[in-house]
C-alpha cells in the first residue's frame, strides 16, 4: 500500500541537507518513505492525503523518559513550587508505589503514557527502568518497558534504596540485577549526582554495563557541577542528559568528542550527545541547560521530555521545543532538529536506509522510516509562535496513521 501526502506547505526534513521544502509531497510505501518532491510532480499512490498547506516534520524522537512507574508526586511538586528544592530522595516515593502495583496496572499506566506521547507527535521513544530498585522489580520494569517502548534503558543506578549499603547496592546493580534485566535492555544509565551515585560508583556501573554489551548513557550535571560529563565522554556514552551545570571544560570535552565525526556524511567516530530537558528545568526551577552555548561550541544536541513523576511530568516534546526556542535561544529549526534528528543520534538511530528493521528515524528522506508529524499550522515556527496550543494534526508511525 502506498500513500501520497500532498500540498504540504512546509516540509522540514531534518535530513543531512537540512532541507526545508515548500509545496512539497511525500509518498509512503509500507513503513518507508518512498518519494519526496514538489507537489506538482507527485506520483500516483493508492491513497491520497491532502495536507491543505500544513507543515510536516519528522515525528519527535524522545530519547529520555521514565514511563514505568505508579503513584503520584503532586505533594512534592507543590512543595517545590512553594520554595523547596528538588532532591533525588523523592524517587523513593515512586519506587514504593511501583513495587506495590501489579503487572497489569504498571503496563496499563505505561501504555497510557506512550499513547499520550504519540498523540502529541512522538513516533520513537526511549524509556528507562529505575523505579524498581531490586532485582525482581527492575527486571519486571525492563520487561514491561520492552513491550511498550522502542528502546529500553536499565537505570538500576537511579537511587540507593533506603536501608541499603551504597557499595553493596552498586555491586548488585553491576551483578545480579544487570543479569536479570539484560534480556530486555539495550542501554544502561547512571544518575551521577550528589545524593544518588558518586563518580566512583558510577564508574563501576558504567564499566559493568559496558562489559555486558550495553550502550551507555549518563544523567549528569543536573543539580550541580560534577563528574557526569567527564565520565560520559571517557566511556564513549551515547549521551549525557540534563547538563545544567557545565564548566567550560565540560563543554569543550563534549565538543571534542565529536572531532572524529564527519557531520556531513554522518561517518567517523561518534561522540557524546548533550541532551537537554527543558520541561524538567522549568519544573524543578533549575537554571536552564546552556543549549545555545553547547550548539555554538559544536556539541551535538538532543531535546527530550524526561517524562517522569518527579521532575518533569509531561510527555510533550512540543512543549520542550517551544521552551528551547523561547528560553534557550535556539532557532525553531535548531530546536526541531534536536528533538528529531538529535534524539535519533542519541539513540544511534539517525542513519540506516532500507536496512530491515533498522531504518533511520528522526528525519525525512527516502528509505527512512515513515514517521511524520503534521501540524495544524503552515510552518514549524508556530510551535514557538503559539505556545501552549496543541498543534498536532496527524501522526504517521512506521507508515501507519496513528493520529
Ligand atoms: N534525575 C534523575 N532522574 C529523573 C527524576 C526522577 C524522579 O525524581 O523521579 C530525572 O531525570 O529528572
Ligand atoms: Zn531522567
From TrEMBL:
The keyword Metal-binding applies. Keywords: Cytoplasm, Histidine metabolism, Hydrolase, Iron, Metal-binding, Zinc. One of its GO terms (biological process) is L-histidine catabolic process to glutamate and formamide. Its EC number is 3.5.2.7. It comes from the Bacteria. Residues 56-377 form the Amidohydrolase-related domain. Fe(3+) binds at residues 64, 66, 219, 306. The keyword Signal does not apply. It is an enzyme of class 3 (hydrolase). Catalyzes the hydrolytic cleavage of the carbon-nitrogen bond in imidazolone-5-propanoate to yield N-formimidoyl-L-glutamate. It is the third step in the universal histidine degradation pathway. This is Imidazolonepropionase.
Amino acid at each position: 500500500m502506498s500513500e501520497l501526502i500532498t500540498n504540504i506547505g512546509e516540509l522540514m526534513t531534518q535530513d543531512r541537507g537540512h532541507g526545508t521544502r515548500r509545496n512539497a509531497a511525500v509518498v509512503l510505501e509500507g513503513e518507508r518513505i518512498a518519494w519526496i518532491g514538489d507537489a506538482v510532480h507527485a506520483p500516483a499512490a493508492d491513497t491520497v492525503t491532502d495536507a491543505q498547506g500544513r507543515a510536516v516534520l519528522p515525528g519527535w524522537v524522545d530519547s529520555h523518559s521514565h514511563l514505568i512507574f505508579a503513584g503520584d508526586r503532586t505533594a512534592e511538586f507543590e512543595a517545590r513550587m512553594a520554595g523547596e528544592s528538588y532532591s533525588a530522595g523523592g524517587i523513593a516515593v515512586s519506587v514504593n508505589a511501583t513495587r506495590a502495583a501489579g503487572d497489569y496496572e504498571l503496563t496499563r499506566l505505561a501504555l497510557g503514557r506512550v499513547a499520550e506521547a504519540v498523540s502529541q507527535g512522538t513516533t520513537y521513544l526511549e524509556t528507562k527502568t529505575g523505579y524498581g530498585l531490586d532485582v525482581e522489580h527492575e527486571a519486571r520494569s525492563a520487561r514491561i518497558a520492552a513491550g511498550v517502548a522502542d528502546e529500553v534503558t536499565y537505570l538500576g543506578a537511579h537511587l540507593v534504596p533506603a536501608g541499603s549499603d551504597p557499595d553493596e547496592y552498586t555491586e548488585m546493580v553491576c551483578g545480579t540485577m544487570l543479569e536479570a534485566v539484560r534480556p530486555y535492555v539495550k542501554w544502561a544509565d547512571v544518575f551521577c549526582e550528589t545524593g544518588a551515585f558518586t563518580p566512583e560508583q558510577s564508574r563501576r556501573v558504567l564499566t559493568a554495563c559496558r562489559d555486558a554489551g550495553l550502550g551507555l548513557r549518563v544523567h549528569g550535571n543536573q543539580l550541580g557541577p560534577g563528574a557526569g560529563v567527564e565520565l560520559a565522554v571517557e566511556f564513549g556514552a551515547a549521551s549525557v542528559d540534563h547538563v545544567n551545570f557545565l564548566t567550560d571544560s565540560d563543554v569543550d570535552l563534549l565538543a571534542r568528542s565529536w572531532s572524529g565525526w564527519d557531520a556531513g556524511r554522518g561517518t567517523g567516530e561518534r561522540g557524546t550527545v548533550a541532551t537537554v530537558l527543558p520541561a524538567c528545568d522549568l519544573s524543578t526551577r533549575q537554571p536552564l541547560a546552556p543549549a545555545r552555548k553547547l550548539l555554538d561550541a559544536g556539541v551535538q544536541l538532543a531535546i527530550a521530555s524526561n517524562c517522569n513523576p518527579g521532575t518533569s511530568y509531561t510527555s510533550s516534546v512540543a512543549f520542550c521545543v517551544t521552551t528551547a526556542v523561547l528560553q534557550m535561544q535556539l532557532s525553531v529549526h535548531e530546536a526541531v532538529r534536536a528533538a528529531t534528528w538529535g534524539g535519533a543520534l542519541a539513540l544511534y538511530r539517525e542513519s540506516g536506509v532500507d536496512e530491515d528493521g533498522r531504518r533511520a528515524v528522526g528525519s525525512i528522506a527516502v528509505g527512512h522510516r515513515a514517521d511524520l508529524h503534521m501540524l495544524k499550522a503552515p510552518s514549524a515556527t508556530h510551535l514557538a509562535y503559539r505556545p501552549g496550543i496543541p498543534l498536532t494534526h496527524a501522526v504517521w508511525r512506521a507508515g501507519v496513521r496513528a493520529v
